[in-house]
Specification:
Organism: Actinomadura rudentiformis
Number of domains: 1
Pfam families: Glycos_transf_2
Strand order of the largest sheet: 1-6-5-4-7-10-8-11
Order of helices and strands: EHEEEHEHEHEHEEHEHHEEHH
Protein name: Glycosyltransferase family 2 protein
Oligomer: single chain
Bound molecules: guanosine-5'-diphosphate, magnesium ion
CATH superfamily: Spore Coat Polysaccharide Biosynthesis Protein SpsA, Chain A
Structural class: alpha/beta
CATH topology: Spore Coat Polysaccharide Biosynthesis Protein SpsA, Chain A
Distance between the termini: 36 Å
Shape: globular
CATH class: Alpha Beta
GO molecular function: transferase activity
Number of helices: 10
Radius of gyration: 18 Å
Keywords: Transferase
Helix content: 25-40%
């Protein structure tokens, strides 16, 4: 994993075309919100972690929509299409980590380790995952869940991107994971995921490729994390080709979930705190705040 000398952090500058809406949005996030019980609660800080491999064309769609986060971490696999230059031209405050293109899993682990906010949201750079859904993930984390995974198979979710073969493979792998780990998930192989930053270490991730999504889910079980699914709609990748190979990566997912099933449990949290209801004011703020248009 790459160390901080490859991290570039720059201050906000005049080239930041979205500075005004973002500033307004961040003010809304950091404002204290009066709860029903009269106590004030604060939105947690949020880092978006985004792996990129030649995604400049797609980032023209995504970057202007990343208004409601406190930190953006881009882990770039030495893109040759101007990905890094584009990000810095519109978001000079983004943190960019460049490392060899050894797989999405490696990139995500690097990004999670670099994130500094209380909550982390992971999404692809290809424009298939909409930041307008951030609040659905964050609301569940705020209630006390540690790990919230998007699902394209519950009411309100969907996919324009899955081929028939991938859909079948995902369904078989999800069913198997549910058997092996006694879960009731509806979608295993989906990379739109959010977690508390203190969950990162507990997950003890080692994957290098697309099987990282499976490893995150099954290690969340093995570590005793509180897991929730939330509906998400995946659109088609906007430009370019997927880097995923259905057979090769499906096989890696299968091997990962079977291998981990027979390893010792990870350190588990002794007991869960009760889930908190979200006060009404907090909910209202959650669903009116994301400025993505
Ligand atoms: N840094 C880095 N990012 C990668 C690598 N492989 C894939 N990605 C990124 O991971 C995300 C998911 O990849 P994608 O090709 O969209 O896979 P799909 O969503 O499963 O079709 C995209 O944002 C890619 O740019 C890699 O080796 N290094
Ligand atoms: Mg994708």
């Amino acid at each position: 994993m790459h160390t901080p000398d490859s991290v570039r952090a720059t201050g906000r500058g005049s080239g930041d075309v979205d500075a005004a809406p973002r500033a307004a949005s961040l003010n809304a996030r950091s404002a204290n919100i009066l709860s029903a019980s009269g106590q004030t609660r604060r939105w947690p800080t949020v880092t978006a972690v985004i792996p990129t491999l030649n995604e400049a064309a797609n980032l023209r769609w995504l970057m202007p929509r990343l208004t409601a986060v406190d930190e953006i971490v881009i882990v770039d696999g030495e893109s040759t299409d101007g990905t890094v230059e584009y990000v810095l031209s519109v978001r000079p405050d983004a943190r960019i980590i460049v490392e060899p293109p050894t797989g999405k899993g490696t990139a995500m682990r690097t990004g999670m380790a670099a994130a500094t906010s209380e909550m982390i949201i992971m999404l692809d750079a290809d424009g298939s995952m909409d930041p307008a859904e951030f609040d659905s993930f964050l609301a569940l984390l705020c209630r006390g869940y540690d790990f919230v995974k998007g699902t394209r198979y519950s009411c309100g979710g969907g996919s324009d991107d899955l081929t028939g073969l991938r859909r079948l493979g995902n369904s078989v792998l999800t069913g198997l994971a549910n058997r092996l780990y006694r879960q009731n998930w509806s979608d295993l192989c989906y990379g739109y995921v959010a977690m508390r930053r203190d969950a990162v270490e507990r997950l003890q991730l080692e994957s290098t490729g697309f099987e990282i999504e499976t490893e995150m889910c099954v290690n969340a079980v093995r570590a005793g994390l509180r897991i929730a699914e939330v509906a998400s709609h995946e659109t088609e990748r906007r430009h370019g080709e997927s880097n995923l190979n259905t057979w090769r990566d499906g096989w890696r997912v299968l091997k990962t979930m079977v291998r981990l099933r027979f390893q010792r449990r990870l350190d588990t949290r002794p007991e869960h705190l009760p889930l908190e209801p979200l006060p009404l004011h907090f909910q209202t703020a959650a669903f009116s705040r994301t400025g993505t248009e």
